[in-house]
Amino acid sequence: MVRVTEYRLEPPENGRGLFNYLWDQQCDLLAQDVLPTFQRNRIVDLTTYWYYGDLVFLIPVPDETANINSVVKPFQWKVWLAIGVSIVCVIAVLNLIQHLEYRSAFITDFRPNNKPLPKNYTNDDQLRPELVNGKKLQFKKWQTGKQYLYVFGNLLSQGGFCPSKWLPFRLVAGVWTLAAFFFVQSYTSTLFTYVVTPINPPLINSVNDIVDSGDINLLVRETGFLNTLLLATNHTGLFLALQKKLDSFPKSRCVSPSECTKLMTPGSRNVFVDAKAFVMDEIRKDFKKKGQCNFQLAKESFISTMASFALAKNSPYTQKISQGILELLQIGLIDHWDTWFRPMPPQCNGKPQSGGSKKKKLSPLSLKNLTSAFIVLFVGLIFSFLTFLGEKIISIRK
């Protein structure tokens, strides 16, 4: 067993690589994950694959945040804008119809002989007592201009008083009642979903989130499969976007997985991708060091990867070692060794918090889930108290 400190397989310009131990006949077998490529197959012997797996994304565990926006989230801003415009239009139409109705009723009741209107007929929706033909008349105080109580009352599921008996007025009021019913039902049903959903969404769910987000940095191991694949040939589409993402961040290529995870501090926008075995090692080491789970896996994995052992070119041991690897895979000993030497703590197994088993433990809603509801209640109480004070001040002045 020859212990080494190098990480790179191919030697750098001024240094040694792991392949130098084979070329200098310092070792016969390189017990390292060697990704098989045509270039490497020309300079060393590669055994059959001893590891099969997927590339997974390691992301920081998100911090819990208060679900303040849950009151607004059920509707998009276009829907809120349309509801606001509808409220203004309905109030204006109802006021206009009621004004026309009262004006028509007044003309019919008090101008039977084309008599002029009383001089003190005002626009504040009331008539003062006046002598007409020697009689003192008291006209009714019409409650026009308060249609907003009816409109907002229906939106708040409180109903409202419909003062008019005109068919046009009642048609508009009925249409608004029906529309408010749909608004309220759609809002409340969707609001429940936003209240109970996790308020700490993961940084990414798949590789597409990395490409679509401009502020997420991708970290890879220099000798890892993805970096080797992207440097091998020219790519298009998704792989071209990943290559540009790596080139845009100067620290995207790390020598070791530990060096990559050091850049993934809480609140950072860095994502590390590698084979699952290396990623799980980093989760386990971080948990043993800090005593808490700071990393987790993204929901979706990436492309499959495999690894081989390397021997000197034309080595007499290549065929025997390949046959031994096949026998170990057949009896499942390699998978058993993986669980034996890499026991993961049950409280930090790397699985996403939102996914997982069918039997999920239901947890009660916390204060952070209902933060927005308490904020709305607090604002409503303050507004009601200020309205009460305003009414008392007005009544005292009168």
Notes on the structure:
- This protein is α+β, with helices and mostly antiparallel strands.
- 45% of the residues lie in helices and 12% in strands.
- Strands 1, 2, 3, 6, 7, 8, 9 and 10 form an eight-stranded mixed beta sheet that branches.
- Helix 3 runs antiparallel to helix 4 (147-155) and helix 3 packs antiparallel against helix 5.
Low-confidence stretches: 121-133, 135-142
The beta-strand count equals 10
Structural class: alpha+beta
Total helices: the number is 13
Distance between the termini: 99 Å
Helix content: 40-55%
Mean pLDDT: 80
Reading the helices and strands in chain order gives HEHEEHEEHHHEHHEHEHEEHHH
Note the main sheet: 8 strands, mixed
Percentage of residues in strands:
5-15%
Shape: elongated
Cα-based radius of gyration, to the nearest Å: 37 Å
Features:
398 residues, alpha+beta, two-stranded antiparallel ribbon, 45% helix, elongated
Short description:
Helices cover 45% and strands 12% of the residues.
Topology:
Layout: H1 19-23, E1 29-34, H2 38-43, E2 45-46, E3 51-60, H3 77-110, E4 130-132, E5 135-137, H4 147-155, H5 167-196, H6 207-212, E6 217-221, H7 225-232, H8 238-248, E7 253-254, H9 257-261, E8 270-275, H10 276-290, E9 295-297, E10 304-311, H11 318-331, H12 333-341, H13 371-397
Parallel strand pairs: 6-7, 6-8
Antiparallel strand pairs: 1-10, 2-10, 3-8, 3-9, 3-10, 4-5
Helix pairs in contact: 3-4, 3-5
